[in-house]
Design goal:
By secondary structure, the chain is mainly alpha-helical. About 65% of the residues lie in helices and about 0% in strands. α3 runs parallel beside α8. The longest helix is centred in the N-terminal third of the chain and has 34 residues. The protein is globular and about 70 Å long. Bound molecules: zinc ion (2 copies).
Length: about 280
């Protein structure tokens, strides 16, 4: 048997922990929503956005490529930790004020929303689409497991946000706190899974209320999968509205799906019943 140096053992151990950290987030979030949709299946049936169903082949491809994405994300996490050891990235893991964690998490979410919108639009360019983003769009009817279903190239592009953001903030003299990065990562996977649920989670009126309409719904991203070159945003609607890329029937489709209540289903039967 080959005797490996202790440094290699330590490296392998840390690598496995990072892979576990990145993979379990996907499995927990996608697993949680899958179980929730099964438990509330009659509600979920009414709120399904598309008539089409994802096939077994879709699920297999989505889970396999999402696991590969988790490994690529882990390599990037490892790269970020390496940059920290070199002193290029400032990351505080000690105690910090709650207020700092809140505004840093918000800053990271806003920056990622902008990064994602422009990166996503670039990947839709005809010269890049086939090699990078086509794989994600093989899921015409998204499921919770579509969240990390990326080609390796797209996974790298998606993952680069964190080291780039950390390098930029560190250059500006801002030390991010570990908890803010942790909360950002959980927010990212939960919103990502919700965007791919295939079932509208948000209540009727969401897109018509000025306090909520800027927050992306499941219908928003679902329309991106079913009809292509609109709705590129991840968390908020504003980039698509500013850039004129919002699906022209987004609000209409959302209202249609959320109007399907149990009461609305029962009403036509009552109307057609003999007097
Ligand atoms: Zn796309
Ligand atoms: Zn998607």
């Amino acid at each position: 048997m080959i005797d490996l140096p202790p440094a290699f053992d330590m490296f392998a151990d840390r690598m496995m922990r990072v892979i576990y950290f990145d993979m379990q987030r996907y499995l927990v979030a996608a697993g949680f929503f899958t179980v929730a949709l099964l438990v509330f299946r009659s509600w979920a049936r009414r709120k399904r956005i598309q008539g089409r169903r994802a096939t077994r082949k879709d699920y297999t491809r989505e889970i396999a490529s999402s696991l590969r994405t988790s490994v690529i994300f882990a390599l990037t996490t490892f790269l970020t930790l390496g940059l920290r050891e070199l002193g290029l990235v400032k990351l505080k893991l000690e105690t910090f004020a709650l207020f700092t964690v809140v505004w840093q998490t918000a800053l990271m979410i806003l920056a990622h929303d902008a990064y994602f919108y422009w990166m996503h639009r670039a990947l839709h360019h005809r010269r890049l689409f086939r090699a990078t983003h086509l794989h994600h769009h093989k899921s015409r009817t998204p499921t919770p497991w579509t969240a990390y279903s990326f080609s390796s190239w797209e996974a790298v592009t998606e993952a680069l946000f964190i080291p780039l953001f950390m390098l930029a903030t560190s250059t500006l003299g801002l030390a991010m706190t570990g908890l803010a990065v942790f909360l950002f990562l959980w927010h990212m996977i939960v919103r990502n899974v919700i965007g791919h649920l295939g079932v509208e989670l948000y209540p009727a009126g969401w897109v018509d209320n000025r306090w909520t309409r800027w927050w992306n719904t499941t219908t928003h991203h679902d329309l991106h999968h079913s009809s292509g070159n609109t709705n590129f945003g991840l968390y908020f609607t504003w980039w698509d509205r500013w850039m004129g890329t919002e699906h022209p029937r987004y609000r209409e489709e959302f209202r249609k799906v959320t109007a399907r209540t149990r009461k609305a289903e029962a009403e036509p039967q009552r109307e057609s019943a003999p007097a």
